[in-house]
Amino acid sequence: MKELSIHASNHSYKVQIGKGLRHTVGSMIAKDYSHVMIITDSQVAPLYLEDVKHSLTGTPIDTVIFPAGEQAKSMSQYEELLTACIENSLDRKSLIIALGGGVVGDLAGFVAATYMRGIDYIQMPTTVLAHDSSVGGKVAINHPLGKNLIGSFHSPVQVLYDVETLQTLPYHELRSGYAEIIKHGCLDDPDLFHDATSRSLADEAITEVLEDHLLKGIAIKASVVEQDEKETGIRKYLNLGHTLGHAIESEAGYGHVTHGEAVAIGLLFAMYVSKEKLEASMPIANLYAWLGKQGYPLNVLTHLDTSSLVDRMKKDKKSTSGKVNMVLLEELGKPVMMEVKETELTELLNRFKEEVMSC
Amino acid sequence: MKELSIHASNHSYKVQIGKGLRHTVGSMIAKDYSHVMIITDSQVAPLYLEDVKHSLTGTPIDTVIFPAGEQAKSMSQYEELLTACIENSLDRKSLIIALGGGVVGDLAGFVAATYMRGIDYIQMPTTVLAHDSSVGGKVAINHPLGKNLIGSFHSPVQVLYDVETLQTLPYHELRSGYAEIIKHGCLDDPDLFHDATSRSLADEAITEVLEDHLLKGIAIKASVVEQDEKETGIRKYLNLGHTLGHAIESEAGYGHVTHGEAVAIGLLFAMYVSKEKLEASMPIANLYAWLGKQGYPLNVLTHLDTSSLVDRMKKDKKSTSGKVNMVLLEELGKPVMMEVKETELTELLNRFKEEVMSC
């Protein structure tokens, strides 16, 4: 088992990564709780819920299973979960366990953040992508008018990452999660970037290095978040690849391309803009080739309209007064913020489509 | 104008109390905001909304007015306000002003706490009671199964208390608010207790000392909250008078007795239990006489069933495993927590009804 500590503003917590942790949750919880409520979704429950339940003894346990999918991050599902907390008599000394991917973590985390003004919760991520969201304390639900618009900062008391639960992941979800690992490498660990992009994700051997890659990815995320918990400064670097990524996601229609797949293309674009504007030497061709081999749907971009994408980038939460703030790279491991004007962005995106994406 | 600073865990903020502050809000805001949204209710809006709006210049201003009353602290009203924030394009650099009593502060504060993971807000209390709730960062809405069960801790960036807005308060609301001022006196300032209970609330001269009483009450609340923001220790002292108070409120039916009126009776009971269990010397007769003269509905207790009240006290958020944790007083200004068993509580409450409340 690998372990690291994260120092949030009001408490520190451990991230523990290893094989089979779901069988030992009970003995790994550091505190006594009056009550434990496991919140999970319909996809994860049949696979791992019983294992987690069996590992917990001596404490009253309740479970809530909601229908899997992004649509669960709704106000009505949030209210249902709060009702379940009350009906099961959770008090301020109770614990919520969020067992699942990013949706479960975001939703159950927001419930924990706001039930009786905040109770403890543990993140048990079951996807690669959730290595990113399980750390840092951002929890949220969606509003019909926008994703993650309702939420707060509420750090978990512990993150328990059982890498065995990743073995049941569909290949496209593994791929989606790797985009964030590669992003973390770009931000602060060129070796991680090079190592990850030298592997074949479809190869079974990937499970052997996964633990190491996840730990490194989380360590980078954690170090950024520790320095800037509330996203006023360098936390914005984590947005690398997300400016175009988010635009692709919403322009293609959610569900048509996964978050990570869109971010992968966004990373390529950030590298391209870094090369053009900062004369940075960027492994664009290597990354492009690797992404292609892993089956990332790179051609999705060619079907999307440049001006619609630019419009969406302008509306990004991180953008101010019509200009787009992009995270660029001076070199691998050295992020920098840069304001790009709309006209320039349009031109860069058109050239990127032509020069890079149509090879 | 009187002023004091409050040191919350992640930022400090000022409480400013004075006459006519609603006309100078614009010049008193310490920071530049991209957008200001004033949230208020149907009772306060016709009286003071225009004044506050006129004081703000140069920043886009939106206003939302919701129907006054405790029922506004609902999930659906919360969602409506969030929608208004989005539709009015509030971003992370926007400000919410909560203009009104405790309901407005709690609801608008929870919106500010959770919109885009938390934006700034200013409390502008317009009731005496809100001197208590506007400080300390507790924000919440109600669940059909219980009051204030959904919420978080989110301190305002400023509290602007225009005492002129208190002149339009109905007398019973002034009275209700004074119960919390007297409670604060009991906890930490015997002089405040004696001074407040030597005045006639119906007398116009009360407006002259109100500013001073509010400041002293807030100072006590603030000092407790600074030491224990998240209610793990001494913040529980603020519950003085609330154990029986909450039970009376819900047993009588919300709306039949105000929060403060119920707390006033609860204070008397806390004093009685302190006398019986701690042999404390308590000004019970004085407080009883003063409350009677001010028209507090003291006879409400005689109509309520003792065992139902004890049942409700057992279910209080602060109670654990069937015993009731009460805040008692060793003497005026010296609170102490004490566990009281159900049988003893029943006996004490019966004797209190007979010996004190039926004079």
From TrEMBL, chains A, B:
The enzyme class is: lyase
Function in brief: Catalyzes the conversion of 3-deoxy-D-arabino-heptulosonate 7-phosphate (DAHP) to dehydroquinate (DHQ).
3-dehydroquinate synthase C-terminal domain: from which residue to which, for each copy? Answer: 177-319
The name under which this protein is listed is 3-dehydroquinate synthase
Needed cofactors, names only, are: Co(2+); Zn(2+); NAD(+)
Query: Which positions bind Zn(2+)?
Result: E180, H242, H259
**Catalysed reactions, as listed in the record:** 7-phospho-2-dehydro-3-deoxy-D-arabino-heptonate = 3-dehydroquinate + phosphate
**What is this enzyme's EC?**
4.2.3.4
Family indicated by similarity: Belongs to the sugar phosphate cyclases superfamily. Dehydroquinate synthase family.
Q: HAMAP family this protein is in?
A: DHQ_synthase
Cofactor binding mode, per the note? Binds 1 divalent metal cation per subunit. Can use either Co(2+) or Zn(2+).
Taking every annotated instance into account, which residue ranges of this chain make up the domain 3-dehydroquinate synthase N-terminal?
Answer: 64-175
A Pfam family that this protein carries is: DHQS_C
